[in-house]
Amino acid sequence: AKNDGRSTYRFFEDDMAAKIKQRQTLITDLYKATANRELEVYFQPQVTLENGEISGFEALLRWNHSRYGFISPIEFIPLAEETGLILEIGAWVLEEACFLAASWPKPVNLSVNLSPRQIYCEQLLPVVDDVLTRTGLDPGRLELEVTETMLLADHLRVRQTLAKLQEGGVKISMDDFGTGYSSLSTLRRFPFDRIKVDRSFVMSMSKDDDARFIVNSVIDLANSLGIVTTAEGVETKEIAEQLKAEGCTEAQGYYFGKPSPPNQALVWMLGEANG
Ligand code: C2E
Ligand code: CA
Ligand code: CA
Ligand code: CA
């Protein structure tokens, strides 16, 4: 048993070393990724449940690594966040997404995710202003998504920054609602324009009565506060219909469309325009 323990320990040690090395490689590569044009913005449709029309798209970052292929944002966003590189990458995503959205055939919404470092950064307001000016995108079409953990520290300055963005016409959404420790008190602290119900609840709705009850309660709560709702992770027609019946405003998920390259977003919009 003692030998087993030691060999397990050694294995663990090697594994850790490999992981640290891989992490370092990814960080180095991430620095080059923007210059090498390895980062791409994909778009996932958001649909108004009442009429089935596209109401907007969420911009989702993709890293097409020259050797490893597609690497999930779940893996590289945290590295970008730790190294501070997220400021550069975040500004790039914002600009690229706004630039593309400004030329869409329908003036639908564009949602862009913000990271904690971005909202604590003094440069956020000037960066957003600058991007809106240069791309010509109507500020009323831009929605920035934040999670409650970013607001937990409850910095006055962060709330002021978000409020200033709203004054300029930009909307602020609360992403992944329900996954944090204090979703309800976060709602009281900031006037969100939209709540995005986390996909973990939505995806469990069909087999878990409690999940369905939670989703319905969040929709009712948001409706009574006058906040628009988006259900994330809608994978079936059945769930989409339940959400519509419950009064959910919009939905996003594989049932309506997967995150896809910019051209596919155009195809979807033009398809609607042609009937
Ligand atoms: P998120 O903001 O919650 O984005 C939604 C995620 O749910 C996306 O994962 C999307 O592909 C996935 N999804 C959408 N519909 C469905 C569905 O019906 N079923 C399932 N199983 N999944 C669905 P993705 O693209 O892998 O992004 C993961 C996370 O990475 C995002 O979660 C967001 O937190 C972060 N991220 C992505 N792009 C950016 C970015 O440009 N900036 C920042 N700061 N974070 C980003
Ligand atoms: Ca999001
Ligand atoms: Ca989300
Ligand atoms: Ca989520």
From TrEMBL:
Cellular-component GO terms for this entry: membrane
Molecular function as annotated in GO: catalytic activity
Keyword Iron-sulfur: no
GO biological process, one term: signal transduction
Swiss-Prot/TrEMBL keywords: Coiled coil, Membrane, Transmembrane, Transmembrane helix
Domain EAL: 23-273
Protein name as catalogued: Phytochrome-like protein cph2
Organism this protein belongs to: Pseudovibrio axinellae
Part of the intact protein present: 680 to 954 of 970
